[in-house]
Design goal:
Layout lengths: L5 E7 L4 H14 L6 H13 L4 E3 L2 E7 L7 E14 L6 E12 L12 H6 L3 H8 L2 E3 L5
Parallel strand pairs: 1-4, 1-6, 3-5
Antiparallel strand pairs: 2-3, 4-5
Keywords: Sugar transport, Transport
InterPro entries: PTrfase/Anion_transptr, PTS_EIIA_type-2_dom
Protein name: PTS sugar transporter subunit IIA
Length: about 140
């Protein structure tokens, strides 16, 4: 397992919640994790069952906890346009335009609690400041 967490900011177009799952799989592969979309989807769903991951200010935190992840990562994603997210725990619907993806292999890992995460939960607007400090990648279209 990698000893360093990888961080990035990505600006992207997503058309819906299904595209979001595909994008999460792409992120896992980008960070050299060998994991299939159904495992990523299941990992997100299992975490979402524990409680809503919407944190306000049109922001969502998605945890991808899966043994297939050997390179931990955190990606701050800004969407070019909002999409609808239906919570898998409360069935509430939210418009989201910022997503934080956390990828790690073990809930007990130090990566389950990245240093910025507690600040983001307490002050969701801090995401805009964090994204200014990290390298930004722009993806034109994800189908």
């Amino acid at each position: 397992m990698s000893s360093n967490i990888k961080e990035a900011v990505v600006i992207i177009n997503l058309k819906d919640q299904d595209a979001l799952f595909e994008y999460a799989t792409t992120l896992c592969k980008f960070f050299k994790n060998n994991i299939k979309i159904n495992k990523v989807r299941n990992a997100i769903i299992e975490r979402e069952k524990l409680g809503d991951t919407y944190i306000g200010n049109n922001q969502l935190i998605l945890h991808i906890v899966e043994n297939g992840i050997t390179n931990n990562f955190i990606v701050y994603s800004k969407l070019k346009r909002s999409i609808h997210w239906q919570s898998l725990s409360s069935n509430k619907k939210y418009d989201i335009n910022k997503i934080i993806f956390l990828g790690y292999s073990d809930n007990k890992s130090e990566y389950a609690k990245p240093k910025h995460l507690s600040e983001i939960y307490e002050y969701p607007e801090i995401l805009d400041d964090l994204t200014k400090k990290l390298k930004i990648f722009e993806i034109k279209v994800l189908k």
